[in-house]
Amino acid sequence: MAAKQLWRWQGLNDEGVCADGTLWAENRVLLLVALAQQRITPLRVRRISVKASQWRAEKTAELIYQLATLLKAGLTLSEGLALLAGQHPSGQWRALLQVLAHDLEQGIPFSRALSQWSNVFPPLYQAMIRTGELTGKLDECCFELARQQKAQQLLTEKVKKALRYPIIILTMAVLVVLAMLHFVLPEFAAIYKTFNTPLPTLTRGVMVFADFMASSGWLLALLCILLAIANTLLRRKPSWQIMCQRLLLRTPVIGRLARGQKLTQIFTILALTQSAGITFLHGLESVRETIVCPWWSQQLMQIQHEITAGHPIWLAFKNAGEFSPLCLQLVRTGEASGSLDTMLHNLARHHSENTLSLADNLAALLEPMLLVITGLIIGTLVVAMYLPIFHLGDAMSGG
C-alpha cells in the first residue's frame, strides 16, 4: 500500500462515451494497463493527494457495518463491495473498494486483500475477517467487528470528555500560579524588604522557587522536550512498550480502563472463534494477531504454551496474572460444562459494560482529586503571600 498512488483519469469507454474516475496504481504504466483491462482509452491522467482524514477509524467501521448488512441480505462479497463502491461519496474510498473487488475476482481471499491496506484496516480487521472466512460466518464477524469498533470509539470519546475539564482547570491553575509568581509576588517581596523583620519559612520557600523558575525555567522546558523526544524514539522498542504498559495498568483509574478495553477485545475474538468451532489455541493465535502491545502479546503467548503443555485453560489464565477471579471462575465453569463459548461471550459483554460505566464515572472520580490539587496549589501560594502581613504589625510597632 505504501507504494500505491491515487490517480484521477478521464477517457473514453469501449462505446465511445466519456467517463472518469479514480484508481490506485503503483505508477503511470500500471495505471494505463489497468485502464486497458477495463477497455478505457485514457485522455488525461493525473496523480492526486491522499487525504489521511478519509482513513479515520469511524469511517472504516461504518463501511464494515454496511458490508455486513449487505452480506446478511444475501449479496456475495464481491457484489457488496461493488455496490458500496458505486454509492460511496469519497472517490478515495471508491477506488479502494474497486481494488478490493478486483482482488476478489482474481481469487485473492478478502483478508489477504485487506492486509495490503494495513493503514486503513488494522490487524484486528484482518484477523476478524479471516475468522469469518474460516467459519463461513463472515457477516456475523463483520457485525461483531463493527460493534466492537463502535464501543471502542464510544469509550475513547467518553475518556476524552472526562479528561477535558480537569486538563482545562489544571492549565488555568498553572497559568494563574505563574502569573502570581512573576507579577504579584515580586511586588509583595519589595514591600516586605522595607520592614526589618524575618519572613516566614513558607514565604521564603515560595520566593526561592519563584527565583529559580525565573532564572532556570528554560532548563525545565528543555528537559521536557528532551524527554518527549526520548519517549518517541524509545516507543518503537518492545522493552520500552512493555514497561510503559505495566505502569499504565498499575495506574488507579486509567489502568482499569486500559485493562477492560483489552480484555473486551480478547474475549470477544475468543468467543467468536469458539462459537465457530475453531480450537482454543487457534483462537488465541487470532487474538495475538490483533494485539499490537508486546506486553499483552507475551501474556497470550504464555497462555498458549501452558495450554499446549497440558494445563487447563483457566489455570493458564490464572498464571498470566492479568485476569480477575471472575474471569477465571467463568472460564473454569465453561471449560468443565462444555459451554466455553457462552462464558466467553458473557465475559466480553461484562468487561465492555464495566469499562463504559467506568468511563462515565471518570469525571466524578477526577473532580475531587482536581479540587484537592488546585486547592493545595493556589492555597499554598496565597497563604505564603499574605502570611507576612500578620507580622507587619509587630514590625511597625517595634519601629
TrEMBL record:
Membrane-topology annotation of the record: Multi-pass membrane protein
Principal localization?
membrane
Stored Gene3D superfamilies: Type II secretion system (T2SS), domain F (1.20.81.30)
Membrane-spanning parts: 167-192, 212-234, 369-389
Identify the keywords attached in UniProt to this record, alphabetized.
Cell inner membrane, Cell membrane, Membrane, Transmembrane, Transmembrane helix, Transport
The UniProt entry, under Pfam families, shows: T2SSF
User: Where does the record place the Type II secretion system protein GspF domain?
Assistant: 64-186, 269-388
Note the PROSITE patterns from the entry. T2SP_F
Query: Where does the record place it?
Result: Cell inner membrane
Tell me which family the UniProt entry assigns to this protein. Answer: Belongs to the GSP F family.
Entry protein name: Protein transport protein HofC
The opening ranks of the lineage are:
Bacteria, Pseudomonadati, Pseudomonadota, Gammaproteobacteria, Enterobacterales
